[in-house]
Q: What sequence folds into this?
C-alpha cells in the first residue's frame, strides 16, 4: 500500500521535471501518471508485463497518452541522447546492477539532461546502518528490494553530477536531481 508520504513526494518530484521528452524508468502500476507534465511526451518502461497492463489501464482511465514499453533499465533500447529528462521513483533498490542502469539512463539523456529520483537508501545513522545491512538479504528475498543501497554514490559512479539531494523526513528517503 502506498504510504501517505509517497503520495506527497510524487507530485513534488514531478513538479521539478522539465523537458519535452521524458522517460519514466520503472512505471510499475502507473502511480506517477497523474503527475506527468501535460506538455511532455512521456515514455514509460517496466520489466513486468503485469505492471505495464495495470499502468496502461490507469493511463486510459486518466485519459493520458503514455508510450508504455517492456524494457530492462540496464539495457535501454533507445539511441543516445533521446530524452530531456528521466524520472524514477523507488526503482533502483530493485535493479540488479544499479550503476549499469544509471549509466544507461545517462546515455539516453541529452547533454544537460536531468535524472529526477525518489529513493530509499542506506542510513548513515550508526545504529540503523548496520541493522539495515544485516536484514537486507531477508528483505530482498521477501520483497525483492535492497534497503542498503548508496544511491548518491551510485549516481556519481555512473557519471552523474548530483545537483540536488534532499532528505525527505529522515536520512532513508531522498529526492535526487542529477545532471548527465
A:
Amino acid at each position: 500500500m502506498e504510504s501517505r508520504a509517497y503520495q506527497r513526494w510524487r507530485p513534488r518530484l514531478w513538479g521539478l521535471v522539465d523537458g519535452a521528452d521524458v522517460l519514466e524508468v520503472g512505471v510499475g502500476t502507473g502511480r506517477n501518471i497523474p503527475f506527468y507534465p501535460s506538455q511532455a511526451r512521456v515514455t514509460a518502461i517496466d520489466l513486468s508485463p503485469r505492471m505495464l497492463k495495470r499502468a496502461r489501464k490507469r493511463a486510459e482511465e486518466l485519459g493520458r497518452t503514455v508510450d508504455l514499453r517492456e524494457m530492462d533499465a540496464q539495457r535501454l533500447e533507445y539511441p543516445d541522447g533521446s530524452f530531456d529528462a528521466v524520472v524514477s521513483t523507488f526503482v533502483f533498490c530493485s535493479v540488479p546492477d544499479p550503476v549499469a542502469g544509471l549509466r544507461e539512463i545517462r546515455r539516453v539523456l541529452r547533454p544537460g539532461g536531468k535524472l529526477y529520483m525518489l529513493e530509499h537508501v542506506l542510513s548513515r545513522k550508526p545504529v540503523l546502518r548496520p541493522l539495515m545491512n544485516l536484514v537486507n538479504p531477508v528483505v530482498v528475498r521477501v520483497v525483492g528490494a535492497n534497503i542498503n543501497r548508496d544511491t548518491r554514490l551510485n549516481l556519481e559512479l555512473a557519471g552523474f553530477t548530483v545537483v540536488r539531494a534532499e532528505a525527505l523526513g529522515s536520512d532513508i528517503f531522498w529526492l535526487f536531481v542529477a545532471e548527465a
